[in-house]
């Protein structure tokens, strides 16, 4: 699904599209960064976008929504609120995605995984494995922004609000690094 001009305009209006030299959560480098937190600070826009996403999933029976910390927490909560089901989140502990805080996935639960932005899909794949390991069944993935333009495959139906391929590079092949341009880490792992 291509990103509509209206959605791109919303990203730009909310100053969620940044240009420069960025180190992504995946470790890859890019000229363009999508800062979904700038959209998620607006409850009305968040409610509208998640509602639009959930309309695409109307045929699904969902018992629980989960998102990886930190990017997926607000999205999972809002999706669960609209679906009238519970929301939980997974978080990293010693580098591994785990459930904490007493969160559990009931055996056989039909689970929706929500995430803000994917570049490689690594965090979402970790959450999917965690759900399956806990005895749940992932029925879909919902994304606010897909930087792969739809190329990432989670082996379940995947729904996207924004989808556009945005080139990223391994650090050793980054043309911005080769030109000596300093990189910044704007995301949730910026303090590491």
Please give a structural write-up.
The strands form 2 sheets. The protein has a 6-stranded mixed sheet, sandwiched between helices. Helices cover 29% and strands 30% of the residues. It has helices at 5-13, 37-40, 43-55, 71-83, 122-133, 175-178; strands at 17-23, 29-34, 64-68, 86-93, 96-99, 110-118, 137-146, 158-163, 168-169. The mean pLDDT is 89. The chain has a domain at 42-165: Rossmann fold. Helix 3 (43-55) packs across helix 4. It is built from 6 helices and 9 strands. The protein is α/β, with parallel strands linked by helices and 192 residues long. It is globular, with a radius of gyration of 16 Å.
Topology:
Blueprint: H1 5-13, E1 17-23, E2 29-34, H2 37-40, H3 43-55, E3 64-68, H4 71-83, E4 86-93, E5 96-99, E6 110-118, H5 122-133, E7 137-146, E8 158-163, E9 168-169, H6 175-178
Parallel strand pairs: 3-4, 3-6, 6-7, 7-8
Antiparallel strand pairs: 1-2, 2-9, 4-5
Catalytic activity: orotidine 5'-phosphate + diphosphate = orotate + 5-phospho-alpha-D-ribose 1-diphosphate
Binding site for 5-phospho-alpha-D-ribose 1-diphosphate: 115-123
Binding site for orotate: 119, 147
Shape: globular
Strand content: 25-35%
CATH architecture assignment of the domain at 42-165: 3-Layer(aba) Sandwich
Distance between the termini: 34 Å
Radius of gyration: 16 Å
Quick one: biggest sheet? 6 strands, mixed
CATH topology of the domain at 42-165: Rossmann fold
In spatial order, strands of the major sheet run 5-4-3-6-7-8
Mean pLDDT, rounded to whole units?
89
Oligomer category: single chain
Quantity of strands, as a count: 9
Total of DSSP H or I helical runs spanning 4+ residues: 6
Tell me the helix content: 25-40%
Order of helix and strand elements from N to C terminus:
HEEHHEHEEEHEEEH
CATH class designation of the domain at 42-165: Alpha Beta
In terms of per-residue confidence, which ranges show pLDDT below 50 for 5 or more consecutive residues? none
Structural class: alpha/beta
């Amino acid at each position: 699904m291509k990103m509509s001009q209206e959605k791109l305009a919303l990203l730009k209006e909310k100053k969620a599209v940044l240009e420069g030299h960025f180190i992504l959560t995946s470790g890859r480098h890019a000229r363009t960064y999508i800062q979904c937190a700038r959209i998620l600070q607006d409850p009305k826009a968040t409610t509208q976008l998640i509602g639009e996403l959930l309309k695409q999933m109307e045929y699904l029976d969902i018992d629980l929504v989960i998102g990886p910390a930190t990017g997926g927490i607000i999205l999972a909560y809002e999706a669960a609120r609209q679906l009238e089901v519970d929301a939980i989140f997974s978080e990293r502990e010693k580098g591994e995605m785990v459930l904490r805080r007493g969160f559990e996935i009931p055996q056989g639960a039909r689970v929706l995984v929500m995430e803000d932005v994917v570049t490689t899909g690594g965090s979402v794949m970790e959450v999917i494995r965690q759900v399956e390991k806990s005895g749940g069944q992932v029925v879909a993935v919902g994304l606010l922004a897909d930087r792969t333009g739809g190329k990432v495959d989670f082996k379940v139906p995947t729904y996207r609000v924004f989808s556009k391929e945005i080139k990223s590079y391994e650090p050793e092949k980054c043309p911005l690094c080769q030109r000596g341009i300093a990189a910044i880490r704007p995301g949730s792992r910026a303090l590491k």
